[in-house]
Amino acid sequence: GSVDQALRGKHYRRGVRCIQLWREALIQQRLTSILEHEELSDDIKKNLDILRNALTETQEAVWNAHSHLENDAEMQQLINRVYEKPGTDMGDFWVSFLEMSDPLVQSIDACHARNGSEYLSSTYDMLAGLMAYDNHDYARWLPDYWAMLSSLSPEQMSFFNDHFAQSLTGLPYSCQPLDLWIETTMNLNSKLKQGWLQLLLNEKQLFTTTRNAN
Fold first, then answer.
1. What is the DSSP code (8-state) at residue 36?
2. 209 with 186: CB under 8 angstroms?
3. pTM higher than 0.85 for the full model?
4. Is the Cα dihedral 112, 183, 6, 100 positive or negative?
5. Neighbours of 30 (CB within 10 A)
6. Cα-based distances in Å from 180 to 59, 157, 213
7. What is the distance between the alpha carbons of residues 4 and 1, in angstroms, rounded to a whole number?
8. Cβ count near 175 (within 10 Å)
């Protein structure tokens, strides 16, 4: 079912799905081999269960679990072992694939979770890949974009962290970048007959399109 879905939709979304499927398969394979004769601690298992059941947990509990896992030495050691290159041509190639796809997946996660600091760090990590793949336009302007966001005042940064992504439903981990949010809401029906005028004259249509409650 996952493979079938990966082959549908627009090119960008299809590419992202394929990358995530490959990452899932590779990381699962690595973890299976590493944990074949080991077992995670009860504390790590408890925090992972909280993240898996994020919809039924409080936001504070989810953030605490995430923070504990981020700072846990055993978890950090496990991550390092997953990314450790095995020393073979094919093995090193697929580990490099994990490393190069990290910024993309991290950026998507940052937008969904509305995590401004993670969004900034993933943007910075993209620079090397853009230069390697000769994307000069992105490589030229992305450093300026990153530098501008990094030099914001604390008040501006606080505002940015709360508004660079938006949720249509209000559910946890459901945010998306603001340009995509506008494209799937207000711009979606702007091509109606009379365009924006039609929306503005119809209060019910306007409210269902902008989802202003969230």
1. T
2. yes
3. no
4. negative
5. 20
6. 25, 21, 18
7. 5
8. 22
Q: State how far the Cα of 66 lies from the Cα of 47, in Å rounded to an integer.
A: 7
Look up tokens 């601690």; give the residue. 41
The neighbour count for residue 113, using CB atoms within 10 Å, is 19
Query: For 90-133, how does the pLDDT look when each residue is reduced to its tens digit (9 = 90+)?
Result: 999 999 999 989 999 999 989 988 888 899 999 999 888 887 77
Residue 122's contacts (CB-CB under 8 Å, 6 or more residues apart) are 102, 103, 104, 106, 107, 110
Residue entry with tokens 């790590």: 44
> pLDDT of 39-86, one tens digit each?
889 999 999 999 888 778 887 888 889 889 988 999 999 999 999 998
Cα 11 to Cα 16, 18, 126, 177, 185, distances in angstroms: 9, 10, 20, 18, 21
For the beta carbon of residue 154, count every other beta carbon within 10 angstroms. 7
| C-beta separation of 27 from 102 below 8 A | no
Q: How far apart are CA 111 and CA 174, in angstroms?
A: 9
